[in-house]
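Weekly modeling sync, notes
Attendees: S.R. (lead), two postdocs, one rotation student

Agenda item 3: backlog of single-chain predictions. S.R. asked that every request posted to the team notebook include the full sequence so nobody has to chase files. The rotation student volunteered to paste the first one in as an example of the format we agreed on. Action items at the bottom.

Example entry:
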Amino acid sequence: MASVDVFVVASGSQANALWLRAGETAILIDAGLAAETSVRRLRAAALPTTQIAAVLLTHEHDDHARGAGALARMLDVSVVANEATLAACSGLDGAVTDRIVEEGHYSIGPFRIEAVPVSHDAASPVAFVVDAGGLRVAVATDLGSVSEAFVERGRGADLVVIEANYDLRLLDVSPYPWFLKNRILGDRGHLSNEGAAKAVIAMHAGSRQDVLLAHLSDVNNLVPLARDTVASALAEESISDVAVEALRPNRGGVRRVLTVSREASSARGA
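Predicted structure, as returned to the notebook:
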């Protein structure tokens, strides 16, 4: 029985970090918390930091990269990102870095990682599609629109972690200034609940999936609203084998252990 252990260290507008483990190797996707806070949360969940082999970055914004350099130095591991992201990041002095090519593959232990360019107002933002032991996890937490490339590469993933940042009605009446609202609404901004629902439907391939709605705004969204918007859209399409959970903003602690039989693993060919 192959398995991938997934733990949400943080999700929201303040910080984002996702821990994945296959066998004895773990990776961290994004490191928006202070290094000490990430380590404390992982240890509180009884997840050994010594297994972390690399810190991968989707883009350079502080809520995704704030603690990357310090954490990499603390754990003596590499920060892995594309060249433009590494160049735009602050705080990486003294940390070992490794470049990943957009639209290419990168291997870390049992993980086969593909970076997929996404639309967001950063230097060269990506989503990650991660395969290990016949299981697939698709992660896209900052994007103004969903590309066909991400849908194709993530279709049928066992776990989809995708942004559901705002509800359009709540954003409309929120205290945010108009320039910020327009940034959020733009193609290089963030994804709405309805946008997340369309992506989840497009990525369904007829088999059971788990979906975690991530990067919820604590001002422009509500956990039940995000969850119910996506769940209702799935129900309208008669899709009943997708389990949807919305992550509480600026919190962590949610864990999923994905498993697959060796026969299914062989059939997938991952």
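Discussion: group reviewed the output briefly. The chain has one domain: 2-265.
Action items: rotation student to repeat for the remaining queue; S.R. to check formatting next week.
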